[in-house]
Amino acid sequence: MKKQALPKLILKRGTMSKKISTLILAFLVLLSFSSIPAKGKPAEVLQLFEDLQQVIISISKSIQPAVVHIEVVHKINDLKYKSLASGLIIDDKGYILTNEHVVDKAISVLVTLSSKLEYQAQVIGTDKQTDLALLKIEPKEKLKVAQMGNSDKVEVGEWVIAVGNPYGFDRTVSFGIVSGKGRVLPNLPIETPLINDFIQTDAAIDPGSSGGPLVNLKGEVIGINSIGFGRAQGFTIPINMAKEVNQKLLASGKINRGWLGVVLQPLNREYAAYYNSPDLQGVIISDILPNSPAAKAELSPGDIILEYNRQKVEAEKGEDLNRFSMMVSQTPLGQEVPIKILRDNQVKEIKVNITEQPKVDAEEYETGLGFTVKEITENMFRQRMLDDKEGVLVSFVDVAGPASQAELDEGDIIIKVDALSIKTLDDFKKAVSTVKEKKHIMLVVKRGKAQRFILISPEVKTEKAEKTAE
Known about the structure:
Layout: H1 5-11, H2 15-31, H3 41-63, E1 67-76, E2 79-89, E3 95-98, H4 100-103, E4 106-112, E5 118-120, E6 122-127, E7 132-136, E8 159-164, E9 172-183, E10 198-201, E11 213-216, E12 221-228, E13 234-238, H5 239-252, E14 258-259, E15 262-266, H6 269-274, E16 283-288, H7 293-296, E17 304-308, E18 311-312, H8 321-329, E19 336-343, E20 346-353, E21 355-356, E22 364-366, E23 371-375, H9 378-383, E24 392-397, H10 402-405, E25 413-417, E26 420-421, H11 425-435, E27 441-447, E28 450-456, H12 459-469
Antiparallel strand pairs: 1-2, 1-4, 2-3, 3-7, 4-5, 6-7, 8-9, 8-11, 9-10, 10-13, 11-12, 12-13, 14-21, 15-16, 16-17, 17-18, 17-19, 19-20, 22-23, 23-24, 24-25, 25-26, 25-27, 27-28
Helix pairs in contact: 2-3
């Protein structure tokens, strides 16, 4: 590279394009450093990095006023605790995007703007499957709104900036690249399955950064930061997905997703060889959920899905199944979809009417009797390998409460309260309201394969509290 080539190339571009070009060219200069005469080295290299620095400074100044500090008080069972996080202003009326896990079980959400003014926020809606939440404040000042980008156009290797409040340090900026796209995080310790399609970045996403933006070098938000795993392993929700969730939460406060009702596994090369078709691509149906659209359309375990709604389907690994799950979830409810399958070496097309996905986020209920229960969802039924879906799951037992004294355990399934049978969480709520004032409450629970009686005396907790206070 000749000494004068770089300045001429840069001067041909506009101001922002010039700065962006220098980011790429900076590394080229370093690689060709030895070819530049010694006399020109310091000035030209320093100018390139000065341009790089100015790009970062300019974008940081532009996005920081749209980033908010969030302080949340959570209540889980009998424990209250405080957490810190980030959020992004997306509307001048006071709407803010953040993560669902930020406001999970929140009893108070306090938002602090860059002006240092504080506002109590209302949670408009949440979506646990994408880890997104929409908040609303009533601002007394003009808000800086973030400029949205198009995450479908994001490229691996693209340089990005992450902004958030790690460890409470307001509006911290970190710099890196897009390390990957379409990432799946299958091993998170959660009951509700995520719809994974994360952007991976090596820009730092530390505790407190959750909910902040990932920004490209045009100053456009391309994602909402969700989680970091150690150094240089940050995962961001694509902004196009966030836009879609935001619109649905604004419209109804909830998300309705399409549902097929199948359990899938990938069709790798070993399976393809077994079916005597080395080039075969698709996904294998390993199970069909009862009363699901798939069951009504007479799909069967062992069928291989080749196409869904005229789009080819393939999955070599477990993480590749995510694309098919997203295709189904984004299908409008009530739409009849053609599905091409391979069954008994014959290709068939079956039409399936897509219905609404059953509830995946289990509701919890604090009884006031020293324990908390949770409704049994389809996903929980399968994960915990329960015998049936009737009853409610004991999710917490206060060690100092009457339920603990009666030897109720977490994981027990309550199927009866006195003489009242329990099939759903609503059944349980009604039953508890009728017996709460009684001196003794008889529960019938299933613990593993065995049935057990639990006699709770609500007064035990009061007596213990009085003795402790003496």
